[in-house]
Design goal:
single chain; 139 residues; mainly alpha; two-stranded antiparallel ribbon
């Protein structure tokens, strides 16, 4: 006999899992690279390379898909942005200029916008699949 978690615990897990995974993914993809690259002409770039950010985004598609396909749309839309915002705040808070808050705000707004659009698309796709008689993804 399979026992199910109480509904509040399920909602809490659905919200916390993407947030924790987002913080861990930030640490894995971006947390270790803290130096800027100085080019021969004196300009600087970094500290992150494009492949690191792309890897982070692709990694975070999985927890958003997981939550949205289980119809935890609010958790899917909020979990990853909250985790990324917390990770960015922690990672960038040693900036003496105080401008790190602008970057953290941009991470929050950008990640929420993209995550909300992707989660809505996944929820719509899985809902349509369920209505057509097919088994929803991940069931």
């Amino acid at each position: 006999m399979r026992q199910r978690l109480p509904e509040p615990a399920t909602h809490l897990l659905a919200a916390l899992a993407p947030a924790v995974l987002a913080m861990a993914a930030w640490a894995a993809w971006l947390g270790w690279d803290q130096h800027r690259d100085v080019h021969p002409d004196g300009t600087t770039t970094g500290p992150y390379e494009a492949w690191q950010v792309i890897g982070l985004v692709l990694t975070l598609l999985a927890p958003v898909f997981w939550a949205a396909s289980r119809h935890h749309l609010a958790a899917a839309m909020l979990g990853v942005p909250l985790g990324l915002t917390a990770a960015a705040f922690y990672d960038w808070s040693d900036d003496a200029s105080g401008l790190f808050l602008v970057g953290v705000g941009m991470v929050m707004i950008g990640s929420f916008t993209v995550t909300a659009a992707f989660a809505a698309a996944v929820a719509t796709m899985t809902q349509r699949r369920g209505q057509s008689g097919a088994t929803p993804l991940g069931a």
